[in-house]
Amino acid sequence: MGHNHDHSHGSGHLGLGLVLNSAYTVIEFVAGALTGSVALMSDAAHNLTDVLTLGTSYWADKIARKNPTERKTYGYGRATIIAALANASVMIAVSAAIIVGAVMRMLNPEPVEGGTVALVALGGIAVNGFIAYLLSRRKQDLNIKSAYIDMLFDTVSSVGAVVSGVVIYFTHVYWIDSAVGIAIACLLAYNAVKILLEAGHILYDGTPSDVDFQKVKRAIMSVDHVLNVHDLHIRSIRSGYNSLSCHVVVPDSLSLPQANDIRKSVSDLLESSCSIQHSTIQTEPTVCTVSHLPRH
Q: pLDDT exceeding 90 applies to what percent of the chain?
């Protein structure tokens, strides 16, 4: 119930963010075109991708809640990972476009209405900051995290636009506008690459970043009557839901009920102390320890 409750809030926040961001993007594009501000136009361009990002995240969050089927036995949780991958890719492309545009403007500087830039960007701080705050409550979900990073850097971008607008208003140093755009684009690209790598790691069934492989192994070995553990595999089914499978070697003398008790003890321990929400554990006697897969 708690998980569904969190998902419901996440989808609602994404939907609200989508509406607010769409409205503000139109306003900022018009203001950027009228003032000739690269910082404002780059912020508006990024906001346009945010509309796509929030829309993608909203759709993925809805899909992820669908029940498993006979053909999709693990469910649709990885829709959120694919969405995060897509969002990060878009953020990198937008960052590159902003940098190219800013460099071109630095080579061919044009006057910018600093006062208008600062005024419009203040609206961005309010809108994007509010959306980022809402999404921050579920940023442990990689899909929500990608949208949160986007909103957070939109807020930072708007702060940068305010700073550049004020500086330009008083000094008429127009290259500041482009420099701020480049700095923000570089920060955005850096964080987008981190999300891209994390999403790829999950899709390759890598050990989740919040799980210590050796700690898990030690925890299993600490259970009474466990002699060894091998074929240990840990992966994320979706963000925040980790799955484990392993073979646990136990004494030959144990009865089936005793072996079942060991499996339950291991599973309970892993869930309570190692962030493992689902475990598939096979017990085997010492006379049967040969595996066809690489051992850990």
A: 25
